[in-house]
Structure of N-acetyl-sulfur-metabolite deacetylase SndB:
Amino acid sequence: MYVGIEQKIHSLPDVSEKRLNFIKNKNKNKKWNDESMLKANEELISELIEKRRILHAYPETAFEEYETTARKKKWLETEGLSVLPYDLETGIVAEVKGDKPGPTIALRADIDALPIEEEAEVPFKSTVKGKMHACGHDFHTASIFGAARLLNENKDKINGTVRLIFQPAEEIAEGAEWLTEKGVLEGVSAIFGMHNKPDLPVGTIGIKSGTLMASVDRFKFTFKGIGGHAGIPHEAIDPIIIASQFVLSVQSIISRKIDLFHNAVISITHIRGGRTWNVIPGSVMVEGTVRTFQPEARDKIKEEMRKQARLLSESQGGEVDIDWDERMPTVYNDSRFEKSVKQTTEELGYSVVEAQPVAGGEDFAYYQQTIPGFFVWMGSNSPYQWHDPKFTLDEGAIKVASEFFANLALTVLQDSSI
Ligand SMILES: [Zn+2]
Ligand SMILES: [Zn+2]
């Protein structure tokens, strides 16, 4: 089966060649042919596409990326890249040491897949039932490996060291924090990463300083009353009434308590209470998420929701248990790197657009709590959104991403201020 997939992998054309030629012509006055830029040749591109398809065919979910890790280890070692001896069950960290002295920066790719049954009709379709690379992390992994290859072949141009972090468990927002605890950021001055962006064309990179992705909070309120007969409610304390008032009242927090120029959303997504039609239940659980872009909004919403839950419960004689989980901070791009990121994109002949923030979370944010970093949108021209069972992407983006990260590393390391 393994060989069969590889055979099919070789037979597919690169569908985005036209698009890249168009961008090249559009940017012909820029440094497309500049010898100083690292470029991926045809041979490397087909190898990276093949590797991405192998990863795609054998997806593994969070903290179970054993085969993916073993595969990566083999690929890195075959290229003579030094794998660092961190104590990791899944995920792998390697380094390219430049010939010239300088600081260390990191490039990060996430490696995990999702518990989704693939519906995309591709020749390298998932061979694992109920699992799929539906977020494009196979593309991220292949591309950062491509950047590593380019850097490894050009050590004479590197002023310092580039650490390559292949991170597990992004989808459950635990991998980055776990790797940070393992010490993978020690000695690293800055970190760079990306996510594919379905609505951007291949060859276009979305760039923005400041907040790019929302902070993510998860809440669970359990309203407790006194259960009883549905026909005798005055002898009960009805938690369904309390929970219903709560669900409606929290929406006014956004309009009345949050600064007009801040961005926030409260979504209640799960309510559980009662089992039948003629019994008032003893408790009702209300669960959901808050997404914010400013810490002030994040703190205010948490405070107000807790206050309203308590006041509403007390007013009816009930109680409330509150479980509040601040899952992820914002992805916050350090403006000091914006110039290098834009310059690298343009000098390679690719297009820069202003990145649109999204309310999804990304655990890259944890690294940025420790060291500065910059996260970009990599155009991938997908007809389907992330996590869709039909998700696919244009593999032309592998060339763009590999070249972008290799050259960005060179540029950032040349800057003595990091
Ligand atoms: Zn995802
Ligand atoms: Zn993702």
The two ends are 47 Å apart (CA to CA). The chain has a mean pLDDT of 93. The first helix runs from residue 2 to 11. The CA atoms of residues 64 and 90 lie 7 Å apart.
